[in-house]
């Protein structure tokens, strides 16, 4: 089968690989639609170290091709979604309430990290009963594929922010995760949703997904703008969706005492992140700093599919470009450059 | 000044009363717009015992007429909203996180319970800094008056239900509190929102406020219908917004193990409510039964006003009738009878 | 192998059975020490319906005899504990945070319910990696066997009660689960711990496990006594550890507005449990009614073992009687009659 | 009256001042016993900026001397405790659940910050009903004075750490706050309590208060020692009770994915605190960083007094030195130097 792989840092290629085989609890999935993620680009640039011939990709939906002997709830032919994170559900961290951390920090992240990812003609999914979700009628593959990471991660940013009904929130950066954090804040009942962004098409989409105010950092210090918009009280919660030191600091600076800073950005560089001591209230401000790795699993993905089915969110507006699997190298390069106002490139496998 | 009072069980009248005086932390409010609540009717019928010459009403907005000597944040002329519940914020229950229960069970409920209510030309509000909220520009009195009880109580029903993002919920009865619980469930990110109701105009409004499914109990057992709609899994949460024994039992019956039953109905009659033992999992199903008295206070009301300001909810669709203060007895009778498909009657004080 | 079984309602016997075989993820355990539970008696009396030749028992520790091909963390010869509840960790309810409810209400309860229990020479344990826990050095089998149910259930009663540090709690009934709820309340930092009981040896043990006050219902209405002990404020939380309608009502009656009623009693009889409407604050008191089925799993059991290892609790004081496996019928009868001030009878398998 | 004051940075003196007068909701307290806190020393050294003639001290108990006209629950002659933090209970932050942050960051901290502190013959307490707590019979002034700050702050460190029953925790530094965090961890049911300290008398006291393991950083890297003690899994929670950058980093390094870092140290110096990016899981480890300012108020202090009354904690072991009020300058200097293995110096006012 064909697979789109990383061949050492900075190198990608389409290669031939063996079709994977399922263990007793696993499934083999035949992808129909996938998405490229900025973190695929990070990976190729070496963010998680070198990899040799590792298939890339973690956002995909498709058709079950084969299941292992112990799988009970799925069979070949089922149309399914699968999370970017596929936890080991009996692991200690999962029992502790953190399935994404099963078997070590970020251990639920298997695709394109510790095993082959989803940009291939066949994809191995561990624990099919625990990690696949049937796609309901009326939900297209194009919609469903957004549950794997963008909806799950973005919404988690909003859920962890613990925004009170009618409360105030600022979301730093409106890439696809930030946009879904903005939508997530709306779905959590936030009353004032301040989106920080400078690109025009992303600012527009932020409005579509529920932002009540836009702060463009090219118009001046975003912290000052947000304090103005909140009558100098600061926000109940701030969401970091970029992965940068400065925006994390900004989040702490705009959050009121007792509020929450919720990180979903992937912090790929630097030895430290910096907490500004005074704005942190010398360690006594009751500001919490929380974070998450994309929640996965059958229940999570099924809930997100239910929101799509009910029409509560339409993620397709983020699909700015479409490609066939043959064109994936071009798609990957465009995503890497953020060329042509790209937000999410969709890959069709047929 | 004129006041609409209860003169013993079953008796109401418009009478002359002395204008109240503020204590050092209090304010006197001149109402502009009010709403009649079904619980006013319950009160007149004796639900909380006899009352002599007690002014009725607890849903109002208006203009500050006078403030006490220690009030810092408000002055005469301010346009303000006030919750139906006006807690004593330094009381033990408030410090314990339950301000509505300050000074005894339901002790934050003062209007038309332990002191004169809001259907008068002047209204006394305890702890003005703690219990008034400025109405922002762009929010009309007609919108704002819904924060006092309907939005606060209905939304609390949804917040306490602990509905996971994309989860499933059933709301029993679509009176104004139930409708706002439905809207609250939508604002909390529910994926499937099943509204139980039989009156046509309420069923329509439920759709407007976010219901994805309507269950009409005249079409058969609502429990069976809800189990059908959820593939026999039951809902993550059920909200009781009627105050009846049967619907509370239904809530337990449709809630999946580990789910939540959230009561906001006012249970006015009977010695007991009944928990069906087997559906309760013989006390081991991990179904929680929680409830709330309408949250009040400056922060709560301000957050709800922010939702109105942002256009996230339009409660005016529930105003089926309007009256002048002179006509309040007619309005009260119609509400008591639920005549003419009435949902909420609005009272204008000018 | 020998097994102690239920042969229809009211009938028990020691019989010969086939030794069980492990599936790929399972283990076979050779018991060393077990405990008889009152719920074994309930089962024999028909509480969960008829059973034919079902091995009884769910509290046991022992030595791993064999593991399935996929088991990673255990091998023959390991000394291990296992919870009374052995969840399916990838099931939907487990992913929702309720592993004890995996695969339907109370579905994690497999031993002596849907499969053979632990009173046999060999015991089948599903998902060994997820459900076994190594017993640390310095913890005896006699101590460790209490983690299976008594510590896990009793402590859960206290944990779910959400007792604030220094808060007040009443625990109704001081059987072994109630005693461990009392100890659990002490371990959760309760300031006033009121144990309700009438048997002398249980009252004494309640003191040992941390009760600050004893209420004997033979001295008068326990509700009145508890209100007296709390200056008429009521308790922050009440724990039901008996499984009776009257004590559940008492729990609601003694709990202050905003408090929690935490049920761990097994309610074996009757169509309904009764919520007293007025003491429930007509559905607006903010009293929560929660419950639990004994938490199981490797993490839970390991944490409980850690408490034993650190000497934070000594459950052996509850072992009033000891028997060999040959004498289990006598032990069972004594437990059924609650003869000779029995609290827990220990079974030795060697 | 006499008062011990700060007269500019680095200067203290005993001076004569006017006795304060109560506002309508306030009380005047006549101290009997006080404690000196290291943060008094920080204040004199300029940590919160310059102050002129500000009375020092925030830990005291005493007798009510006079109450304002609106005070309901206290009268002259009452023996009472008062928290170091005395919130404005109707403020927005208090309504949001963060009373210590009322009226701005750390705004509930009034004594020796924005108004005169407690080292004087008479002390003004705002909102007597909300902020005083009666001392129960059987609790001495010497015990009760520890509720003001040491018990409240230390225990908060443990409560916020969200330690599961039987879980593991490391507490960095065993000064009086750290010792009470250690005791708090024990009272929250921790199973393994690792205290980090190097002074012998503090290590001994840590054992007394519940530590199961001691890590002396003079014996090597405390992070490595803690990883060893936890079989390389890390702890469920780490508590920072020193206020240093390095220990905060250590906390993040020893906390397992999904765990909690709970800060109660006062971070008095430096522009930033540093989050080690990799150990933080590149922002996706699900490690939360939380913090607290000493909780105050009648309910909090009453709960802590209840723990003293029940004998669940004896803080007097921390009192290494005693002085009369006349000798307070000597006491202050010893505390500043941490001379003679001082932990807490007690001041007697009679």
Tag the structure with descriptive keywords.
homotetramer; 350 residues; alpha/beta; Quinone Oxidoreductase, Chain A, domain 1; Rossmann fold; 2 domains; seven-stranded mixed sheet; six-stranded parallel sheet; 11 helices; globular; adenyl nucleotide binding (chains A, B, C, D); oxidoreductase activity, acting on the CH-OH group of donors, NAD or NADP as acceptor (chains A, B, C, D)
Task: Give a structural overview.
The structure is a homotetramer of 350-residue chains. Chain A is α/β, with parallel strands linked by helices and 350 residues long. Helices cover 26% and strands 26% of the residues of chain A. Chain A has helices spanning 38-44, 92-95, 128-131, 141-144, 150-160, 176-187, 200-208, 222-229, 245-254, 298-309, 328-337, and strands spanning 2-7, 12-16, 27-35, 52-55, 59-67, 79-82, 123-125, 132-134, 168-172, 192-196, 213-215, 235-240, 255-263, 272-276, 288-291, 319-324, 344-348. In chain A, strands 3, 5, 6, 7, 8, 16 and 17 form a 7-stranded mixed sheet that branches. In chain A, strands 11-10-9-12-13-15 form a 6-stranded parallel sheet, sandwiched between helices. A 3-stranded antiparallel sheet of chain A has the order 2-1-4, with no helix packed on it. Chain A is globular and about 60 Å long. Chains A and C meet through helix 2, helix 3 and helix 10 of A and helix 2, helix 3 and helix 10 of C. Strand 14 of chain B pairs antiparallel with strand 14 of chain C, so a sheet runs across the interface. Chains A, B, C, D: This is NAD(P)-dependent alcohol dehydrogenase. Chains A, B, C, D: Belongs to the zinc-containing alcohol dehydrogenase family. Chains A, B, C, D: Residues 8-343 form the Enoyl reductase (ER) domain. Chains A, B, C, D: GO terms for molecular function: adenyl nucleotide binding; anion binding; oxidoreductase activity, acting on the CH-OH group of donors, NAD or NADP as acceptor; zinc ion binding.
